[in-house]
Amino acid sequence: MKLVRTVCPYCGVGCGMIVKVRDERIISVYPERSHPSNAGTLCIKGWKGVRYVGHPDRLKKPLIRKGGRLVEASWGEALRTAAQGLGNALREWGPESIMVVGSAKCTNEANFLIQKFARAVIGTNNVDHCARLCHAPTVKAMFRMLGSGAMTNPISDIDLAEAYFVIGSNTTEQHPIIGARIIRNLDGKELIVADPRKIRLARLADVHLRHRPGSDIPLLNSIAHVVVEEGLVDWEYVGRSEGFEKLRRELERWDPGRTQGITGVPPRLVEEAAEIVAEKRTMFFFAMGITQHETGTQNVAAVVNLAVITGNVGKPGAGINPLRGQNNVQGATDLAVVPEIYPGYATLDDPRIGEFEEVWGTSLPREMGVMLSEAFERAKQGEIRAMYIMGENPAVSDPNSNLVRMALEDLEFLIVQDIFPTETSEYADVVLPAASWAEEDGTITSTDRRVQRVRAFINPPGEAMPDWWIITQLARTMGADWEYNGPWDVLSEINRLVPQYRGITWERLEGGHGIHWPCPSVDHPGTPRLHEGRFVRGKALLIPPRWKPPSAWRDEEYPLIMTTGRTYFHWHTRTMTRRVAVLQREVPEPYVEVSPEDAGTYGIRDGSRVVLESRHGRIEVRARVSDIVPRGVVFVPFHFAEAAANALVGEEKDPESGIPAYKVVAVRIGGVAP
Amino acid sequence: MIVGGRELLDGLVKVLMERWTVVAPREVEGNVVLAPLEDAGEIVLDRPLNSPKEYLLPQEEILFEYRDGGFKAPEPRGYAILGIRPCEFRALLMLKSVMGEDPLFLSRWNSSFFAVQACTEPCPSGFCGDLGGPEFSGIDPYRPLGAPDLQYYTLDGRVFVDALTERGKEVLGALRDLGEGATEEELERLRMRISEVWEDMKRVRVVGIEERARWDHPAYSYFAERCIQCGACNFECPSCFCFDIRDEDEGAWVRVREWDSCLLEGFSKMALGANPRKREEDRMRQRILHKFKYFKETTGFYMCTGCGRCLEACPSGIDLREVISWLWRE
Ligand code: SF4
Ligand code: SF4
């Protein structure tokens, strides 16, 4: 029997948990009392969801494709086949023909190595991960405006705030422990929720701004307009920023009376919201509802503007908090599993790349690489010929999944490294069985920049191996001279090369509850709160956000707006959660939420099967008639391969960040069966 | 009763270790967890973060497996469980009154040894005042259902150990050398302290609540709205017994039982999708009325002993004490 302290593998909240293990089996899970983020609580995924690790479906041996079928192989053979496949592509079509995909579910060490593999072994910046599909706009806008793209406050600051402004985040479902911590604080505090859906927090809100999908900028601008017009601006903060005059002029035209036509929100509510955020110490939270739009980056800018001019940044209980979805999406971004930066947010023209060249002993690419959201189109066009995908399932998670599947089919060579067979691994030439969260030591970075240790406590099934080992072996098979004896060696390379992580060493993470980056030296305590006293950028930059109406707006042919998202009981493409009995029981099948009004129009009853069509695809799902969605809007969770909401999502993207517009898709009801 | 220093407690653990795996509060990197001890010195006096339920009804367990054409059922053995509080022991008695005919539960129960730690400090979240109080006394209302083998108290650095069963007396006998009899004055101080704590724990009245707990009370929807459905109140409650069963292919077919939660929609959903407790508030009502009305009316006991674990584990801060006071008010 052993008791192991680790961190939940699901979401970015990063709840501390203690696991009791006997005979390679998880016997019990306990929420960690002393952890500052969850303080003795867990959501159901933490309590129940971790048992997927022992599921019999786990990949246990490497597989290679022979005669059209995937057959078991030895590690030696699989690694040689993988190295050959990539080597061929490299010789025939050059480094730009290879795409490497990392994973926000894997450790910092695995992600650091996978991007190093792309850059130093293959020689390309074609490396990306699912953050492209979630917070790329956040990083872009916040980095430019504030100098850092991450949550500004620690989770525990929720207790210190006087008000909360939640926009585009179904917090109690996607970041349950953060959502619940807001709820437990509601007595005597104010809650503003901006969301087209009547989500749990909206039902508890003092002010629910039920704006139309895609009208975030008009809504946020109209609130900022009131702040300016009523003289509620925090002049000290305006003094600490630049661009206010330009912003003020832009805001003039967004008076709430006029914007009501676009947002559908009555001016009275806008004024109430403006007064609250101006007067109270407010924590802003946002997530995919802000970013997954064609104007994703501008949407984030609108949130930042409002927070800055009301003085709600860099204080205990006040700040801008983009909620990062995956347990380690923050870390995967920090360590540059993205094509536009090097680890530690070094831009492609940063002289720091020279340091990487020195340490890695090779010259490195400085051209922008291919983003995940374009990779499959490029593959379809024959520009990308080979892919190495670690721990992601783009066949279900990426937009326009029909195109993704065709592209995967067309690839000359595909390596998939995962813990379970997935829809994506069906297309692979080599499948590498990886250790799961329970079997791999390493570190992860939670949404509030808290770098924490996760621990191996059982042995991987069969011949599955830790990610860091697999990547290292593959690099060595391709001729690189990598020497790592364990994830600790990788972290010490990160300490050396990434200024934000410099003082966050393996030894320091052994006890306690992690360290918030930036942590510039081993005797630095870490930085729970950003921008205190001074913006990281020096002065904050205010940017008048540019708005355009969504191009996939409803019309006569497609009269409904579909918005996509997650449910509390499942995780992404369900690779893990469908193997957990109670989670699967709660939400066993895909569904579409339809408002009672629309249900009346189309003759839909609760439980009817409906066909949903967009310009890009069609799916069949069961209807849930519910007033959670307003008339004219339907909601579909994207977890289910058998009714992939993403098959309906088109090519529309935010030009600045490449994020697909998952949140606004014009659809129609193509048929109803009782 | 015998009195001694810390050695007495360590000695008790040592004696029990000869015959049992001893489960007691121990420290795990800054947390106190009720878990098997490796060494007698590991036991601590703080209240652990988990309830003792799992040592009789595990979070997840294999009921039987089907292998090579035959069924095989495990024969689990109980533990010597130390350091649980009187409220938790009473809750386990409630658990037994429901699960007592389950062969796995019974085999654990019958081979377990219980040593309860009486509360000489008021606890911040409990409300045992109406439900038996901070020690398991000879005239405890739950006494007819069973008693712990031993009960120990700690006061001013001294440990007092008392036996409540024959088996308990035997173990106590083996500890004679480590302690002495308690003086009248010591006993008086202890009684004083217990009654002070008891007074403190009477903040919430429970007796009679079954008369007030209406079917259509607004409290259910108010609290249901705040519930994120984590299941923790059921999981952490030492008297909640609901479970789910499933068959799994793990090479051999195994039937698995795991803790379930009445606050989840799927818990009461039937095969064709009908659900008598479809709305969240229906399920919240079930949790409250089952504990404070139905169970009381059928067994004479509340299915809650005021341990406060559910409110400690609730991420949204739903506080059963508040629910109860609201039921009283309206
Ligand atoms: S809130 Fe997130 S990290 Fe915490 S238990 Fe739930 S899924 Fe895990
Ligand atoms: S309902 Fe709450 S207070 Fe009552 S026994 Fe269960 S966990 Fe303890």
The 3D shape of chain B can be described as: globular
Strand content of chain A: 15-25%
Order of strands across the widest beta sheet of chain A?
A: 5-4-18-17-16-6-7
**Biggest interface: chains and residue counts?**
A-B, 42 and 42 residues
Q: Number of folding domains of chain B?
A: 2
The amount of beta strand of chain B, in percent, is 15-25%
Number of helices of chain A: 24
Helix fraction of chain A by DSSP (H/I, runs of at least 4): 25-40%
Whole-number radius of gyration of chain A? 24 Å
Oligomer: heterodimer
Secondary structure class of chain B reads alpha+beta
Number of strands of chain B: 12
Structural class of chain A: alpha/beta
Q: Which key features would you list for this structure?
A:
A: 674 residues; alpha/beta; N-terminal domain of TfIIb; Rossmann fold; Dimethylsulfoxide Reductase, domain 2; 7-stranded mixed sheet; 6-stranded mixed sheet; 28 strands; globular; B: 330 residues; alpha+beta; 8-stranded mixed sheet; 4-stranded antiparallel sheet; 12 strands; 34% helix; binds iron/sulfur cluster
